[in-house]
Specification:
Radius of gyration: 24 Å
CATH class of the largest domain: Mainly Alpha
Strand content: 15-25%
Shape: elongated
Number of helices: 6
Number of strands: 5
CATH topology of the largest domain: Arc Repressor Mutant, subunit A
Helix content: 40-55%
CATH superfamily of the largest domain: Winged helix-like DNA-binding domain superfamily/Winged helix DNA-binding domain
Largest sheet: 3 strands, antiparallel
Length: 156
């Protein structure tokens, strides 16, 4: 992209300055030379806190019902609860409530149909959670098709 040459000694000096900066007690992580490169790693003093946080986060995993509901909302948004329920074939009150609590889904407005039901869509937190920049980055149906001539299958 920019393809400029940086003298090796400048790079090493900059890395050493960063190592020194992050070794200060104000930071819960440090820059460590590791496997031929550098990595930011949590300092040992914070291991128990991080462990507790990760355990707490793992308890917040999405259930299968929540994942199914979230998938429908992501692909069909803006969508009403009754449209989601029609696709899933079951009541989605609990799943939608949990997705709202986890801030993966937001209320996008009200539909113009009878009763003006609430419209749901995905949030910015949804994008962060799944590591995407746009709804267009979601896998498309063509991405789910088995590839031709997979090992073990005969070509007809």
């Amino acid at each position: 992209m920019f393809e400029s040459q940086i003298p090796k000694d400048h790079l090493e000096q900059s890395l050493e300055e960063l190592v020194n900066k992050y070794s200060h007690e104000d930071f819960s992580f440090g820059l460590v030379r590791f496997a031929g490169g550098y990595q930011f790693l949590t300092k040992p003093a914070y291991q128990s806190s991080i462990s507790t946080l990760l355990k707490h986060q793992s308890n917040k995993r999405l259930s299968t019902a929540q994942m199914e509901t979230l998938s429908i909302i992501a692909y069909k948004q803006p969508v009403t609860k009754s449209e989601v329920e029609q696709i899933r074939g079951v009541n989605c009150d609990y799943s939608i409530q949990k997705l709202l609590e986890k801030e993966l889904v937001t209320i996008k407005g009200k539909a113009e149909s009878i009763g003006r039901p609430i419209l749901y869509g995905t949030s910015e937190k949804f994008m962060e959670y799944f590591g995407i920049n746009s709804i267009r980055d979601l896998p498309q149906p063509k991405d789910f098709l088995p590839e031709e001539n997979q090992i073990g299958e005969q070509k007809e």
